Amino acid sequence: MTKQPNIIFLLTDDQRFNTIGCFNNKTINTPNIDELMKSGTYFENACIQGGTSGAVCMPSRAMIHTGRNLFHLQGNGEEIPSEHTLIGELLWEHGYETFGTGKWHNGTSSYARSFSNGDNIFFGGMDDHWNVPVNSFDKTGKYNNKSFKTLDYLHSNDKRTFISDHTHTSVHSSDLFANSACEYLERKTSDNPYFLYVSYMAPHDPRTMPQTYLDMYPVDDMELPHNYLPEHYFDYGQKNIRDELLEEYPREQRAIKKHIAEYYAMITHLDDTIGKIIKSVKKRGDYDNTIFVLAGDNGLALGQHGLMGKQNLYEHSIRVPLLFTGCNIPKNKISQANVYLSDIFPTICDLTSIFTPTSIEGKSLSEAIYHDDIIREEMYYAYKHKIRSIKIKNFKLIEYRYNKLKETQLFNLVDDPMEINNIAEMNYGLVEKLREKLIEYGNNSGERETIHGQEFWKNF
User: Fold this and answer.
1) What is the residue extent of each domain of the chain?
2) How many C-beta atoms lie closer than 10 Å to residue 283's C-beta?
3) What's the pLDDT at 153?
4) Is residue 95 packed enough to be buried (19+ CB in 10 Å), middle (13-18) or exposed (0-12)?
5) In CATH, what class is 6-376?
6) How far is it, in rounded angstroms, from Cα 229 to Cα 243?
7) List of residues 6+ apart from 220 with CB closer than 8 A
8) Rounded to an integer, what distance in angstroms lies between the CA atom of residue 135 and that of residue 152?
């Protein structure tokens, strides 16, 4: 009987699609991700579906782990109900050891359902990378320990409560989680296949890292993106969200270069820790029977279109890295298929020959991996009750509805991949045709049963 492949899922936080050295970014240094790229199949058009929360990573991660669409989650993904099967839960039921370390943004009970073991688990969205309040694995799944932190002790007595039983002072989160993964691999003795989930907090802000990595990216050497703007064209109700307040208005050029340098430095540091995990897998002799999945949970603007965060539907914020490598997955292959991160779960089912649960709504990418199938002709995106977008072939329509604001953008992504030239006014017929499709998706997505969907379409 052929042994099931091991699966290592590396999930990064806020890493956009164009941050891979060997593929699409000559400035950034990512030798270990490059190695995985050359050994597998990369989806150049992988996207998140958007977000129902300013904390976009919460619904994004819920969609990843359940394979469900944005409007068929429970709430914003704060918790995942028992009827929504999770990746780790399914693999555990089929004989896998499941080990989870790092960020988990979808409640303690869903983590407990997913993993038979784990360590240094962070329940939350973001924190100080050097002092992460984490948890040891609790086999009861209760995670009742609380810790407290005064967030701004110079100016306030306000404190925040964390689910946490310890902190590794002055250990960076990327090293902490990678070390936990390596220690698991070193001590594992059973013959069971394993699902190792390493969920990084990097390169999410606060963008701090060992100085060695920052020194690799002098601020004055950073290039501004072609779609850099000091401020967005119009206010769609996100100017004062936390991500956008990370840099003052108007965005100064050198300030944006500094953010980019820190962002790249965090990714290079993260890449080094991925190298440690790859080395541990090879040391065990598991490399040839291990599937690696690498993905980002959402992208980030960092000065593009005058924005800083991911609370928008431009390519820089919805497109993410997605890579499958190992076993008999084609090497050094770039797929142009239109895919969502919710497709990861059914793809893992196919790659392990495990029956796909009925709760999954994503599509397996195995036919795109092995046979270049298209998967989807159209892509639909949503952000809260403010923005909807549809992409069909070369064209992408973005509709903003916020209070009295009604703005329309149309981009030709082949001629204008940075989404600089809004061609809506000169293409009225195409806009109307895409709007019809947008309305069709709005009717069929399930969103009209949600608060966000009702609010958007009421203003449409």
Assistant:
1) 6-376, 392-459
2) 12
3) 84
4) exposed
5) alpha beta
6) 16
7) 257
8) 23
pLDDT at residue 358, rounded to an integer: 97
Task: Please give the average pLDDT of every successive group of 10 residues along the chain, which has 460 residues.
Answer: 88 98 95 96 97 96 98 96 98 98 97 98 96 97 92 87 95 98 96 97 98 98 98 96 97 98 98 98 97 98 98 98 96 96 98 97 97 93 98 97 96 98 97 97 93 94
What would the two tokens of residue 421 be?
């030239």
305: left (phi over 0), alpha (psi -120 to 50) or beta: left
Domain 392-459: CATH architecture, name and number where available: 2-Layer Sandwich (3.30)
CA–CA separation, 228 vs 230, rounded Å?
7
pTM for the whole thing?
Answer: 0.97
Q: Give the type of residue at 417.
A: P
The pLDDT of residue 328 is: 92
Residue-level pLDDT at 385? 96
Nearest to 65 by CA among 114, 120, 98, 16: 114
- pLDDT for the residue 373: 84
Tokens of 197: 């989930």
The count of other CB atoms within 10 Å of the CB of residue 282 is 12
Q: Answer positive or negative: Cα dihedral of 326, 12, 341, 412.
A: negative
Cα separation of 175 and 181, whole Å? 10
Nearest 5°: the CA angle 250, 252, 258 is 135
6-376 and 392-459 have identical folds: no
Phi first, then psi: give them for residue 129, nearest 5 degrees: -60, -25
Q: How far is the C-alpha of 134 from the C-alpha of 166, rounded, in Å?
A: 6
> What residue ranges in 260-362 does DSSP mark as E strands?
290-296, 322-325, 333-340
173-187 helix and 253-284 helix, angle to the nearest 10 degrees: 10
